Amino acid sequence: MSRFFDWSHFQWLFPRLLEVVPLTLFITLTSFAVGFLLAVFIALARLYRIPVLNQIAVVYVSFMRGTPILIQLFICNLALPAVIWGITGVNVGRIWSPLIFVIAAYGLNAAAFLSEDFRAAVSGVDSGQQEAALSIGMTRFQCFRYVIASQAVRIAIPGFSNSFSNLLKDSTLAFAAAGIMDLMGTVQAIGYAKYRYLEGYVGAAAIFFALCIFLEFGTHFIIRRLSKGLSAVK
Amino acid sequence: MSYKKIIPLLLAAILAISLFSACGKAKTGDGEPTEVLVGVGADFSPISFYNDDKELDGFEYELLAAIDDRLPEYTFTYKPSDFTNILLSLESGKIDAAAHLFEYNIERGDKFLYGTEGYIHFDLYFVSKTGAEINSFEDLAGKKLIADGNGSNSFYIANKWNEEHGKPFEIIFEPTAPILIEDLESGVGDATLASVSQYDGWVREYNADIQISDAVVNESGTFILFNKDTGAELQAAFDKALADLKTEGFVAELSIKWFDADVSVKAK
Amino acid sequence: MGISFDFKFFLSEIGVAFTYIPIVALLTIVPLTVGTLIGGGLALSRVYKLRIIQSAARVYVIITRSIPILLQMLLMYFVIKGFYDYFGLNAAHLNKMVTVLISCTIISAGFLSEGIRAALLSVESGQYEAAYSVGMTRMQSARYVIFPQSLPVAIPIFGSISIGVMKASSAAYLLGVVELIQGTAMKTAGNYKYLEAYCAAAVIYWALTLGIERVIAFCEKRVRIKMRGGVS
Fold first, then answer.
1. At a CB cut-off of 8 Å and minimum separation 6, what does C205 contact?
2. What CATH architecture does domain B124-217 belong to?
3. Is C178 exposed, middle or buried (0-12, 13-18, 19+ CB in 10 A)?
4. What does DSSP assign to residue A144?
5. How far apart (Å, rounded) are the C-alpha atoms in residues B44 and B40?
6. Are C178 and B173 in contact (CB under 8 A)?
7. Is B44 exposed, middle or buried, given 0-12, 13-18 or 19+ CB atoms closer than 10 A?
8. Domain locations in chain B?
9. What is the Cα–Cα distance from A206 to A14, expressed in whole angstroms?
10. Cα separation of A222 and A220, whole Å?
11. Distances (CA, A) of B34 to B73, C21, C230
12. Which A residues, 102 through 121, put their C-beta within 8 Å of a C-beta on chain C?
């Protein structure tokens, strides 16, 4: 068993893995930001049942959540440039970095999940809140902005954190789909080249673990701040 | 303008600039060499991989570099990625040529334009715990052959033979190399197909208790691929350069350097 | 110019993908059910602050949620193998499916625990206090007061996690179990029609997801009659 783990190789490998971490983080953060913005619109369309947009949103979320991310990456990486080529006559697949398509794919995917988190959170806010707001003359928009949103955010934070960490972990597929040499890409490439795999897996796992510990503590801290005086248990 | 507005704008600008600077430079003027995007493997030692200095290296890479030297009207930019992605990129026009030890089969020939010059044979051997018993597909009757994935040519060959002969053996999958070794040693699988360098690597790194057979499962030579619709001109240029390199013995030399043996396809 | 798409092959691949549904179902349902029991227990111990279990639960959840599933599956093989070596059992007995199921369950339990915890926390603390003041034990308050009120938040989250577990089942191929994506892609070794095969697999996954979403929507409706929340 221990023949599969060579400590000196691990020591050689680990700094090289750390070098690539910023790229992985960049992909995750950018995709999350893109997805977050899109998700707000999707969630609003669904919560307020805006006529046509609601249906589109339902199908969109269903597709994004229902198909494996690997396939979405493939499609975005291939079909998207082909479509753009067809429309504008420019072969962007050659010019643009594959990073752009990958971030687009992850962003679109994240938007679907985040919109569902929004919905769940808003549903957790008692409807009496909206009634009270409307009864004192607020519009639905004002009610959402001043009354519902802040209460929903507290409930939503674990969901967001969950989605963000999912996005971080989904980034492990970027290499398989588009050849991006991020953390997992480097692990695979070096593993094949040197016939040594386990060290890379352990190293990458340790790095992801550390990243998510930060995330957990951050989330925990935020929830505590927002939950003063409310909820939680004896 | 308040400071509050400047900072987000600045961040957005920096983000936009960094994204677009990730674009390559594909501008070619007259008289300048045309850029050719070549897809290669990134994780395929010793054919094409990243070496310790994080540069692309390997047999195939050096071969392509030599071809590049021969073709002053073209300059190569390499796009490393994994096997599946290379083919899909070639099909959709994201790259112009592809090299990943591609062997010929009919379906692939329908989809892609093959170069007419092959460069090496890559022989596969049976690797099993005892080595002596398993020397051919017939020996596998009633046993289990481990394939390391769908995309690998070893799976394709084994599956083809299996189906043509009424499926005498079972194919199981194990894409993760350490687990594959364990499977061979413990008897979960009886044999697998591998090249000599793979076998050497496994024995060296893991002290694997496995043997390689004498018999060889021979396949076609390997070729460079081009886009079916637009690749004819490129193919002609590559073929000429490759033919020259073979006649000069460069390919044989390269093969000895990387594989300790001359497995090149001889010049016609 | 663009890509070719072999529609006939695509359709035949959908048929192939269909035959793998039982495996996907097995790899989803078992981890979900066992994982809910484990995860629920962990979540309750954290919400009710049972001292020792709480810290262990926290560590468990953090580990399983922070390491990508791909990596966890790979590492889990070596962990389980280590157990076998330690106890001197023969690795040939190590059934691949069992290894995969154990790994998936352990991973799912972590996610489910976090989701259940979010749902439990969404109930106002006044409810917990009220239950105690009427003389209920913690078990009783959890079962009769808190649990029903946590459902509006719990159900969508549970739906989301089950879909995640279903798609995570595709990582089983790393340990040698042929599941839907790999099974569908087997033909492409020869003909390179990966796009068609992957799209076919996507269609089947989507169909399964729609099924799950139907069930979730039904549950949401039933719960909404008793609870009133949200906006309109």
1. A66, A67, A68, C24, C166, C167, C180
2. 3-Layer(aba) Sandwich (3.40)
3. middle
4. I
5. 9
6. yes
7. buried
8. 32-120+221-259, 124-217
9. 10
10. 5
11. 6, 49, 60
12. 113, 116-117, 119-121
pLDDT in tens, chain A (234 residues): 567 788 888 998 899 899 999 999 999 999 999 999 999 889 988 888 888 899 999 889 888 988 888 888 888 887 777 777 777 777 766 677 778 889 999 999 999 989 988 888 888 888 888 888 889 988 888 888 888 888 888 888 877 888 898 899 889 888 877 778 889 888 887 887 778 888 899 999 999 999 988 888 888 888 888 777 665 443
Q: Burial of B107 by CB count in 10 Å (0-12 exposed, 13-18 middle, 19+ buried)?
A: middle
Report the distance separating Cα B44 and Cα B227, nearest Å: 22
| Beta carbons within 8 Å of A107's beta carbon, 6+ residues apart | A30, A31, A32, A33, A34, A35, A38
Tokens of B19: 């994204």
Q: Both tokens of residue B224? A: 């460079």
Is A223 part of the contact surface with chain B (CB cutoff 8 Å)?
A: no
- CB contact A124 to C (< 8 Å): yes
Which tokens hold the place of A3? 């023949």
Homologous superfamily of A2-226 in CATH?
MetI-like (1.10.3720.10)
- Alpha-carbon gap, residue C183 to B150, rounded angstroms: 9
Name the DSSP letter for residue B5.
Answer: H
Q: B178: closest CA among A4, A171, A27?
A: A4
ipTM for the assembly: 0.75
Is B188 close to C194, i.e. CB distance below 8 A? no
B55 and A CB contact within 8 Å: no
**B32-120+221-259 carries CATH number 3.40.50.2300:** no
Domains in chain C, please, with CATH?
Answer: 1-20+178-226 (no CATH), 22-174 (1.10.3720.10)
Within 10 A of C68 (CB to CB), how many other CB atoms are there? 25
Q: B156 vs chain C: nearest CA distance in angstroms?
A: 6
Q: Which sequence spans correspond to the domains of chain A?
A: 2-226
Closest CA to C63 of C107, C102, C105: C107
Interface of B with A in 9-48 (CB under 8 A): 15, 19, 22-24, 26, 37, 42-45
